[in-house]
Amino acid sequence: QVRLVESGGGLVQPGGSLRLSCAASGFTRNLNAMSWYRQAPGKERELVAAVTSAGERVHYADSVKGRFTIARDNAKNTVYLQMNNLKSEDTAVYYCNISWSDSDYYSGQGTQVTVSS
Fold this sequence. Notes:
Elements: E1 3-7, E2 10-12, E3 18-25, E4 34-39, E5 46-51, E6 58-60, E7 68-73, E8 78-83, E9 92-101, E10 104-107, E11 111-115
């Protein structure tokens, strides 16, 4: 059974940093893309960042470019999201997503990130 353990969320002041982690287990196939989504109250879920299987390509939402960095450790089946210079508009529940194809993917339960003074 696929299991995702997300950690690192919390309350931080504007301008601060957080590092999210997502450890995946319960499968034997090699993962394809790993990504982070977020959903703020009253808004649709949006893609924040994604990284391909070998880390050779990354994608960021325009709103986080230059502030967030996604990375993965394939030996640990773990994906990270380093978030710097956080803003109040980054407040959301952040979800880890792992995939083997466009139609074969799994999402975590989410971790709350709150940016407030």
